[in-house]
Protein: Wax synthase domain-containing protein
Amino acid sequence: MQIALIRLMTRDKYTLQSFTNFPLFSRSLRDFWGRRYNLQVGTVLKESIFQPLSLYISSRMIIALITFIVSGLFHVHIVLAVFDDTSSALSTFLFFILNGIVCCIEAYMGIQLPQPFGSLITHVFLLLTASMCIGHCTREATYFSVNVPPLYGNQWIPKLPIPSICPK
Structure:
């Protein structure tokens, strides 16, 4: 609705770019980071780092790894500036290095997995490594009290009774 509203209000002079492009359909990690997740930041990294470096460096894999390193440094800055958590800085940086290395391996191997299997492998990898990047959010004691999940604790939502066979 927002995309349509922006186009109507500006008479097609401006469009609102979507934040994601169905990341659950990613068939590879390169597809996830390059074409599906966080499109605004991906566009900024592509236009400000990847494309200018491609004029000087011929290897696209090295340029991609440098781009992941810069993205990792940005995220480390957020961890240090917002959360003041020096213990999570290294793991956050390693998350992006690891994802960059795996993306380079995917590009080098050139294997295209079928849609359901590729999506499963991609998201299992992301779930296994996500704690490296967002662990500081889950360990922060005040995070969930300040950022309460939507509809948490609402009384008007019907709740099923807990079965008697469940341990207390």
